[in-house]
Amino acid sequence: MENLGYLFAAYTVVWIGIFLYVRRLAKRGRELEEEIADLRRQVGR
Amino acid sequence: MRRVDVLLEPATLVAMLAALFLVFVIVPTEAEMGIVQRIFYFHVASAWVAYLGFAIVAVASAVYLWNGSRTADLLALGAAEIGVLFCTLVLVTGPIWARPIWGVWWTWDPRLTMTVIMWSIYAAYIMLRSFGGEDEAVSRYAAVLGIAGVVNIPIIRVSVRLLHGMHPSVLTQREGGGSGLADPWMRTGMWVSVLALMLLAAWLIVLRVRAERMASEVRALRRQLEGQAVA
């Protein structure tokens, strides 16, 4: 039972890491969408 | 920021933290299995998310075959990838529980075997989509495979009862066995874990569909630029 705290800590670190990684992916995706829209405008000229 | 991101980001974070707090702080330790039983909260939740992912593949594939919707096709692909990811987590966390409880990492129990078959079908779906390219015929073949594969889900669900498998029924008490979640906090922990992983999966599917849309746009732009260069 004394190892439960370590297990909790490890799970928390991994889950927060996953959350931050997915959040970064979402942000990068939005930036790419804006870049593509900008390119489309330039090509369409 | 899009509305779906505004909703999914904080909801996923809150649900994940709540699940961790419940599973590791609030939920009592199961008397017979001890700490290792806590992996159920992630193993079972991952299984449900995988089932949901594969069910989305089947429904979206049926819609694609019916009306040729590009959105449905992309949704099927995104859901298949996320379904396989969570099914892999099921196949990894299961043996971690099985080794101390059953004494073996793996056994060819009906539910375990059917889960491996389901994982293989949807891994084949992803390979077909990856190596088949942009051909519309590939999307149609993959859609048929995506619909056929979902037949596995009810078989997996009833395999414990009908095929007399040794895999425990986690959410329901089995006759003569104590594998159910007896304490109300155990059930709460399970549902919150299921919610947390479902929100994470939904967010990943949204991102995956969005990335595939961007890839299509880049291909269209490239074709347009090549056309302008030739002219």
Task: Throw out a few tags for this protein.
heterodimer; A: 45 residues; mainly alpha; 1 helix; 0% strand; B: mainly alpha; 7 helices; globular
Describe this entry's structure for a reader.
- The complex is a heterodimer of chains A (45) and B (231).
- Chain A has 45 residues and is an all-alpha fold.
- Chain A is 91% helix and 0% strand.
- Chain A is built from 1 helix and no strands.
- Chain A starts with a helix and ends with a helix.
- Chain B is mainly alpha-helical and 231 residues long.
- Chain B is 78% helix and 0% strand.
- Chain B has helices spanning 3-26, 40-67, 70-102, 110-132, 136-149, 152-162, 184-230.
- The two termini of chain B are 38 Å apart.
- The mean pLDDT of chain B is 88.
- The interface between A and B is medium-sized, with 23 and 28 residues.
Q: What is the helix fraction of residues of chain B, given as a range? A: over 70%
Number of strands of chain B: 0
Order of helices and strands of chain B: HHHHHHH
- Inertia-based shape of chain A: rod-shaped
Low-confidence stretches of chain B: none
Mean pLDDT of chain B: 88
* Class by alpha and beta content of chain A: mainly alpha
Q: What is the general shape of chain B?
A: globular
Biggest protein-protein interface? A-B, 23 and 28 residues
Task: Tell me the radius of gyration of chain B.
Answer: 20 Å
Parts with pLDDT < 50 across at least 5 consecutive residues of chain A: none
**Helix count from the secondary structure assignment of chain B:** 7
- Sheet having the most strands of chain A: none
Measured on Cα atoms, how large is the radius of gyration of chain A? 20 Å
Would you tell me the structural class of the helices and strands of chain B? mainly alpha
At a glance:
Chain A is an all-alpha fold. Chain A is built from one helix and no strands. In chain A, 91% of the residues lie in helices and 0% in strands.
Blueprint of the fold:
The complex is a heterodimer of chains A (45) and B (231).
Chain A: H1 4-44
Chain B: H1 3-26, H2 40-67, H3 70-102, H4 110-132, H5 136-149, H6 152-162, H7 184-230
Helix pairs in contact in B: 1-7, 2-3, 2-5, 2-7, 3-4, 3-7, 4-5, 4-6
